[in-house]
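Could you help me review a protein record that somebody else here produced? This is what I was given.
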Amino acid sequence: MRSGKKITTMMLPTLLCLFGVLLAACGGGSVPGSGSVSKTKAPDNQQVYRWAFRLPDIASFDPGIATDNTSIQAINMAFTGLVQLDDQLNIKPQLAQSYDISDNGLTYTFHLRPNLKFSDGTRLDANDVAYSVDRALSPDINNQSGVALTYLGLIKDAPERTEGKVKSVIGTGVIVKDPDTVVMKLNKATAYFLGALTYPTSFVVEKSVIDKYGNKWTDHLADNGGQGGNGPFKVKEYSHTTGIKFVPNDNYYGKKPQLKEVDYLPFKDRQTSYNAYLADQVDVTDIPLPQYRQSSSRPDFNKTDALTVFYVGMNYQVKPLDNINIRQGLALALDRDTVVKAAYQGAYTPTCHIVPKGQFGYNPDLNCPGGASVHGDKKKAVQLFEKGLQEEGLTRQTFPQITLTYPNQSQESANEAATEVQMWKSVLGINIATTAISQNTLYTYQAQTQGNKGPLQMWLAGWGADFPDPQDWITLQFGAGAPNNAYNYGDNGSGHVAAQKALQDQMSAADVMSDKAARLNAYNKIEQQLVNDVAWLPIYQRPDFRLLKQYVIGMKFTSASIIPPDDWANVYIAQH
């Protein structure tokens, strides 16, 4: 899985959507206050924010390559793009001060802010924007990430650029009108192009630094007093073992951070960073699931709806999983609430949704298959399953061996798989086998399953929003030729494949609707049909939850699991 933020069962992209105190709509939440906490700003020598992350190192510091949330958080500190999301998940001009869209939706003209500079003081202009987009689409960069077309594929000649059929999109798809104006020509009008540009793939990078250091350029971001980027911070130090130290970028075009340093610190796992937090060695940490319940009553506890949904995937090319009654029977046999309590300490939110709560397109009126609740419906599950068996000429005794594959990186994943298998056995009377593989192998297998009967039959997976738009959850997953359609929706031999293809046509039509209300209505109807078809078997939406020192003032966390660049100006350390 994932052309965007990579999501595992235990970590966020997200990275992406890579993905629940619950926030209204798409809002951000501040840490609960306490009467004993001062808001008086501490001296400059205490303005250091220590930020723990749960990996030995970030996967990549290169905006054109990174696909995981841990890397993207670091990238958002030092790099920005033409447009980005604010803490309400609205698309806002960033390096661009404004933009125009042609009447036919095929031409976007971006007007840059005046006097833009890279963090080393070098001028940044439209040529740098064009270079960065073209670089991300180049075969060399795209082959390392595979994500360029997901976010930039609408640009004219973009597919040909990734394949090496054209040497550049500059002059055709991306046109430098003058140093302050860049124009992007699209091959298809859509309503989500600006949303796709908020993903780091198109963020602006400094050509001279890349020319000098080649593929190792991100190891030199601290050289020359901090170079290569244009975000609110620049890199002071970067070690692949001890983390990253950021300091304010004096050449940043927006409001400057009040913090004097942010230390992005690696820890091998959630428990280690949690222990470091309790020892006052870091200012923010994720919470291990075993400590969730006791931590949730602390005054420094914070919880945010995250745009991440985890599900059971089913391969429509595997019989009898291509039978809709079999799939609905499997879905209704599960009590998602029990699964979440058994495997995840009740910390996550059971759901039947594909589009998550907290973003545009969420449908509060969506029904689970058969009109059931997240608790399922055992009686209806048996009825539908038996109908499916009859249609396939099967009995419970002749039901073929189906294997549920799950990532082996956590006990929680194993607990989820075991709970679901037990429910299918007790409700439906069938035995589903299980096997555990590495997360990276699972990603590889998902890609190989697209268009094939294997290697996956059923599997546990998750998706985190790349950008908060239904297209990222619907067309990108289930559309005709979609890069993530390992489920083979619309590509199978079932009797319902014609209806699936018709729904794919509706997806393509919704993608280009300019009327926001009509587009929302179309996506809601499509999602309901996908849920009824059990295109995914959603299990839960995972929130982000953390502990944050109460002397950290002004910090907001968004459901997109990112901190917008201009929000850093509001963050400071209080006296403590």
Observations:
- Confidence is low (pLDDT under 50) at residues 1-6, 8-35.
- The first strand starts at residue 48 and ends at 53.
- The radius of gyration is 24 Å.
- The chain has 18 helices and 21 strands.
